[in-house]
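Entry:
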Amino acid sequence: MKRSEINQILKNARAFLAEKQFMLPPWAYWSVDDWKRNKDSAAEVIENMMGWDITDFGSGDFYRRGLFLFTIRNGKLNFDKKPYSEKIMIVEEEQETPMHYHWSKMEDIINRGGGNLVIELYNATTDRKLDDTAVTFKTDGITRTVQAGGKVVLSPGESICLEQGMYHRFYGEKGKGKVLVGEVSMVNDDNTDNCFYETIGRFPVIEEDEQPVHLLVSDYRKFIY
């Protein structure tokens, strides 16, 4: 992805978050110099990969297959005491986050406002394939079941609990508008805990055609130290 494209996505995300009155912590808006001055006191933010996160999953087409995320809080296994994580995400209409599951993380995905979020579900086999068995899950504490590949549509205010080993892909429902999506989960580790059904890239390879508006979580090592 080009840095200019990432910068525009960030600007659009800031506008949507402001529209939905979802506020971010002060360090979200730090400059590179601010990060350098505060790198010691902000060690948890840097080490636990909190902050802005944009990916096209290696597709080259962010609005077809991509995701905007901001990790607000996060622990790190065997590093600190915090056992939980929280994210805010923006999902465009028909913008796909590809099929994947987590080995360790259990998560609640919450529609915080905007359009509808569509989630497709499968159980995973022991060899990481898509099982053909029915999937049992909970939405807002209510037990439900769908057939393999079944779709769950979350309207604003609704949530789903995704357990370990439960394959899922999601996207915004066509014609309903972009979706503000929350995630509350166990500790998040995007380097080791994502099992994608396809072989894809989680973090973007960036072409630096202009200066960053904000640093991404994958930028910290490059720009701060």
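The helical segments are 3-19, 32-37, 43-47, 220-224.
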